[in-house]
Amino acid sequence: MNIVFGITSGISIYKIPSVIRKLRKDGHNIRVLMTPNAKKLMNPIIFKVASGNEVYINDFSIHNPLLHIEIGDWSDVFVIAPLTANTLAKIANGIADNLLTTSFLACSGKKIVFPAMNVKMYDSQITQENIKKLKEYGVLVIEPDCGDLACGYSGKGRLPSEDKIIGIITRDIYEPLKGKRFIVTAGSTIEKIDPVRFITNFSSGKMGIEIAKYLYKKGADVLLIVGKTEVNIPEYITHIKVESTIDMLNAIKNNLKDYDGLYMVAAPVDFRVNNYSEEKIKRKGSLTIELIENPDILKSLRKDFKEKFFVGFALESKNGKQNASLKLKEKELDYIVLNIIEPDFNPMGNEENRIFLFEKSGSNALEFKGKKHKVAEWIVNKTLKLEEV
Fold it and tell me: Which pTM value belongs to this model?
């Protein structure tokens, strides 16, 4: 992806070199424009090193008099981060008095801006009207985060985290899933024995989170419902944390009416404790814990959501393909993804996965193996028929 980074003189400018460096490491091409005032806060050499390209500040060059046109045509996405109230007011009202604002005005492609400023400046009527204008012009305006600000105030005005900025910028420019909405579950659930002990499994949550990230990247609105995980949840993806299997079922049920479908990637615990102790159980010889069966989440949901698109996941250690085919029919799924535990391989907590994909049409299962982020891409592309992979 070709990314133009416009940089203005906000105090959060210090975050941007790291963002650019990570984007470049991921294979993106970066070109940087700075306002003259931004140059006073940070030496352009830093951005030249981070991007691997020249940094542009001046309005005019005898060697490249049409740079403001050429750079917009080159870009897949034009980003301004941080965006000060001053430059925000200029671009909202068509003022082109430096190279950055001129290039932004001349760019007809995708534009994303990240306003960052004092909370009073952000909340002012003038700034809010300018933001409204930009949105009406088709510019994607990302709201700042809340928290302590460099000026000593606290409130909305912080530039989002590096990972959130990168996640938003690197969405597919064509957004083939724009307008689609999916719930994804991830991780394991826990079932308490007493206030300090619980039953769970080895699921890390990585597979579900990778699927949520890829759906988002392709333009979908994603709600991640997540239990216990060992990996970080991306800040740019809306999520609900749950604890037990029943909590997960209720969270999905309460939200699914507003979504097109569900990727049930989580590994909810199949049994819960029937004799939960309100107090910590003391050591006193042998202990018997009575377990009762938890509800089957997909079976329970299909009764109320006949029209929704469901992708289930199965983990088997014996007769995997037969069991997966049976679950596909019994739970009335559109697809089921089979993971198999083998003597020398357990997908739970692993960085890699080997899966088989079954569809309700009954055709032969498709097999794929690789790193989990690649497996996630393959699953989404196949189940939503995005492209041949």
Answer: 0.91
